[in-house]
Amino acid sequence: MTAAQTLSTPPEIGGIGHSVPRQEDARLIEGQGNFLDDISLPGMLHMAIHRSPVAHARIRGVNTEAAAAVPGVVAVVTGELMAQHNLAWMPTLSGDTQAVLATDKVRYQGQEVACVIASDPYTAADAAALVEVDYDVLDPVTSPQQSLADGAPLIRDEKEGQTDNLVYTWESGDSDATDAAFDSAARVVSLETHYPRSHPAPLETCGIVADINSVTGQATLYMTSQAPHAHRTLFALVAGLPEQNIRIISPDIGGGFGNKVPIYPGYVVATAASLLLGTPVKWIESRTDNLISTGFGRDYHMRGELALSEDGRILALRADVLSDQGAFYSDAQPSKLRAGLFHVVTGSYDFPSAHVTCRGAFTNKAPGGVAYRCSFRITEASYLIERLVQNAAYEIGEDPADFRLRNFIKPEQFPYTTPTGFVYDSGDYHTAMRKAMDEVDYTALRAEQAEARAEGRLIGIGVAHFTEAVGAGPSRTFDIAGLKMFDSAELRVHPTGKAILKLGVKTQGQGHETTFAQIVANELGIPVTDIKVVHGDTDHTPYGLGTYGSRSTPTGGAATAMVSRKLADKSRKIAAHLLEAAEADLDFSAGVFSVRGTPDRSVTIQDVAFAAYTNMPEGVEHGLEGSYYYDPPNLTFPYGSYIVVVEVDAETGVWKVDRMVALDDCGVRINPMIVEGQIQGGLTEGFAKSSMQWITFDEDGNCIGSNFMDYLVPTAWETPRFELLETCVPSPHHPIGAKGVGESATVGSPAAFVNAVIDALAHLGVRNIDMPVLPDRVWAALQSAGGGVG
Amino acid sequence: MYPSSFDLTVARSVAEATAALSEGGEDARILAGGQSLIPMMKLRFAFPSLLVDINEIAELASLERQNGELRVGATVRHADVAASDLAFGAVAAAAPWVADPLVRNRGTLVGSVAHCDPEGDWNSVLLATGATVQIAGADGSERSIPITELIVGPFTNSLGEGEMLTAVHVPVPSGASGGAYLKLERKVGDYATVGVATHLELDEDGRISSAGIALTSVAPSNLKATEAESVLIGESPSGELFAEAASLTADAAEPRSDIRGTAEWKRNVVRVYTRRGLEQALSQARSS
Question: In terms of C-beta density within 10 A (0-12 exposed, 13-18 middle, 19 or more buried), how is residue A118 classed?
Fold first, then answer.
């Protein structure tokens, strides 16, 4: 419970602020969850995908004879067959087209070339290995720099009007004002860094069971989908199926992190196969399939510059990005924003001018650009500004924390309009940062660092203060493929006072079944255990854009509060009728309506619910249910102050985290335990990316990182202990004052870890080591700075 | 991840196992812990036609000391070694660093030895400690060879058709001795980026009477640093001596640049870890 939060319900009701145990955990822990691969339908066939072993090649021919001859194989689907149904290509979330099954060329290693449908998954895998493809291998393009250089092989030769590998150019901010600020600057600090390609790597891979009834045309698609409603509409638009006949069921999901936002070729082929064969078809990705072909995150080559005044104030920022998009442009991004929310790159600081440019380049790598636990590229932005600010402090010889405190947006400046046009809703950065500094005893730490240096030991103190922008809409700015980014809730209170809440958003482990019930409990006083939360089934939930970009609480959570208030208003009418009092004379608290002044005259919300079906006042509509579509007026802007202490082994470059203090302010916390869990998980992902995790490619375009031996996910053993702190400045425009938090720690923490390692080496002049900060990179930096031992 | 189809036979004795191997020919493989083999099959890097399960053969399960040697049977798990009071020096030091707890509970030391993965930890330990391996043949024959003669190359051992490893024997030093295994890994369960096994025995005057140094992941096979070993023998331990041995070991390494790091850096880690490993082995020997 934060100081600013007060509990308005007792524990037995379990409203906002209570660490209610997760309602969903019992069934998940006891093996009674229902994940995609648990679904088995009568007559169901299994699909396996034959993928390209090479990064770039023209297809001379596909021979399916041997595969088709394997006993148990029902069909072998090629790009040619898909083309006959006009389904060889599909649109991406960014308005590009992507091959469903390759017909002309393969453009990355792991691209889908053919699919085998068979009686069981073993047979399907055996036969998929027997598909023979005749490739005319072409030179691969393995970096965006190479991609945009003269003479680079044209990757998208099928795309009309495409004469080079440039995907887009985009800019934001005021270049003239920024140039002027740089011209007048006392100092300029710059940083070039690569935020490497990473992968969300949910523990459950992607999959589908497509079940199309050959008589009714009813298509029931069980899919690992973070956005089932949006996917239903996209299926209707792409496949031409009538939308009322499409039902998408997204069952329990074992993690999404943005990876389950796009539509993948496997979904499309399995659906087409079910339609053609008249039987259910299941496709479950292998781990390698997931890592080499589905939506990656990041891969931004960034250059940033800060203009500084004589007295150490930031005057302006320039940022230039070269984005490695892979072979198809399929960023998960709001349509109007090519680089997503990258232009929140001005961070937590108050300065007048900024200019941001971005270019995207096609390469022979898997497509993606999904928001991996990130609000549309804000992770890259946060990382760049926090690394730049740290270097600016070194440049002027000031402590990085002091530099931040001087340049922060002040509490009285909120709502604050940034130079790239965002309006930050609320915050008190100074208090947050000072609280984190007090917790680690920052001054004593710096003294300890100086003593250690004198003994030849390398201790580093990394600071990062991020501001995130989450909760898309508002719908006027944010849409996905034209679908406006509002969200919804539908609430029905049954005669016995129990309730069912239906959501447009969809949990992948975030705990919606608990936290959203707590919002209802808080508003109506119905105990959280009396509320069932339904989501993920498009036939049974109101329309929504799904769960990603930390948007569920800012949008769906707001809708839940608003629909609860609608029902509270109606309940007041009913209570007034039951109590024979005027509505205005009623107090409502923790599920009890009482007559002001005579508290023994009261009825409970359960009494009211029963009356809604049995004893309604004249002229009032029966029942107690409603729905609400919430269009947020603005994003919410959670923030945090993170401090990391590391020690670097000067002989080997190996570094270890001694301490990590993470202060998060996400406004009002609905369920503090779940919020802390989210932060712990996010910090672990941030630690992973800063220390060990990346997907890279060799010069032939082979993906290095195709399994969990190469793509590293840290365990409890490596992961440092995180100490969590909080402050609470509520969002002024959100109905319950909450901000999104699911992604904060993933966004904010990489800079803190990297800044800590840099800080350990800063006295030697080291200013950058790209992520992951592998020990050989640290050692090499030490060697070139002359600070290596031995 | 679905393997291609294969046959499975459960052997009740070493004779049954070697007969089955012999019959199965080139594509037959022994299934002990399966912690390397099964993932390779699921990744479709390996397509054995026959698996010979040896887990039911009682005589292969023993971990014991006999005749001045530590005997590790073919189905003894890494976790058994890690938990055993009988393990010593580099053997005891390495056991908890093999893979992760799940793999250690199932995987076997002898299986890892036979696999000859240059990134495997155990062959370095056996090279440093001068171990021998016990081999059974299809004709009922038994023979014993030094570990140096088993390792032929990456993923290649010198076993003939129908032959299997039944045990590893590690000599137990009679005097003061110590050993270490220093492993740099990116995360728990990872193969070594660099692994260094060290083994020292001291005579009554405190001079080094026997020395072993071997490396993991920095050469096409686990590498015995013989030149470094020879400068140690007969000498009194000192910082300079260990630094010289560490440099010779680093010179002997053949690291390659890869996703784990550059060759130059790995060679440096070999040098640092060799020195630290020798220091640890010495400290253990002096307190033994």
Answer: buried
Residue A1 has pLDDT above 60, yes or no: no
| Domain definitions of chain B by residue range | 7-53, 59-171, 176-286
| Nearest residue to B261 (alpha-carbon basis) of A202, A712, A652, A153 | A652
Interface of A with B in 634-663 (CB under 8 A): 651-654
State the residue range of the domain holding A40: 36-138+205-253+260-293
- Which candidate from B2, B100, B186 shows the least CB-CB separation from A122? B2
Tokens of A492: 């029905």
Q: For chain A, what is the domain count? A: 3
pLDDT band at B1; cut points 50, 70, 90: confident
CA A347 to chain centre: 19
| A435-493 pLDDT tens trace | 999 999 999 999 999 999 999 999 999 999 999 999 999 999 999 889 999 999 999 99
Best mutation target among A283, A649, A652 (most B Cβ atoms within 10 Å) is: A652
CA distance B33 to B17: 15
pLDDT at A5: 67
State the angle between helix axes of A429-440 and A442-454 in degrees (0 to 180), rounded to the nearest 10.
50
Q: pLDDT value at position A335?
A: 84
Residues in B touching A654 (Cβ below 8 Å): 184
* B269 with A652: Cβ contact below 8 A: yes
Task: Using CA atoms of A750, A751, A754, A758 in order, give the dihedral in degrees to the nearest 10.
Answer: 180
Q: Which two tokens stand for residue A526?
A: 């119905």
Q: Contact A780/B187, CB-based, under 8 Å?
A: no
Q: Which of A48, A122, A779 sits opposite B265 (nearest CB)?
A: A779
Q: Is residue A112 part of a domain?
A: yes
Residue entry with tokens 């993606």 = A368
Hey, which residues of A are catalytic here?
226, 373-374, 743
Question: A319 falls in which pLDDT band (50, 70, 90)?
Answer: very high
The tens digit of pLDDT for each residue in A377-432 reads 999 999 999 999 999 999 999 999 999 999 999 999 999 999 999 999 999 999 99
pLDDT in tens, B165-181: 999 999 999 999 999 99
ipTM: 0.96
Question: Within its chain, how far is the Cα of A596 from the centroid?
Answer: 47
Residues of B in contact with A780 (CB under 8 A): 262, 264-265
Answer whether A3 touches B (CB < 8 Å): no
Enclosing H/E stretch for A285: none
The CATH classification number of B176-286 equals 3.30.390.50
Contact A603, A589 (CB under 8 A): no
Per DSSP, chain A holds a count of helices (H) and strands (E) of 19, 34
Identify any residues that bridge with B130 across adjacent strands, giving them in sequence order: none
B209-216: average pLDDT: 98
CATH value at residue A766: 3.30.365.10
Chain A: closest CA distance from residue B24 (Å): 22
Which among A605, A630, A655 is the end of a domain? A630
What is the pLDDT averaged over residues B106-111? 98
H helix or E strand, kind and range, residue A111: none
Residue B9 pLDDT greater than 50, yes or no: yes
- Contact indicator for A82, A340 with CB cutoff of 8 Å: no
Write out chain B residues lying below 8 Å of A121, CB-based. 2
What's domain B59-171's architecture?
2-Layer Sandwich (3.30)
In a domain, A143, yes or no: no
CATH 3.30.43.10 describes domain B7-53: yes
Closest residue by Cα to residue A173 from A349, A384, A422, A455: A422
pLDDT level of residue A3 (50, 70, 90 thresholds):
very low
A776 touches chain B (CB under 8 A): yes
Pairing of strands A723-726, A655-665: parallel
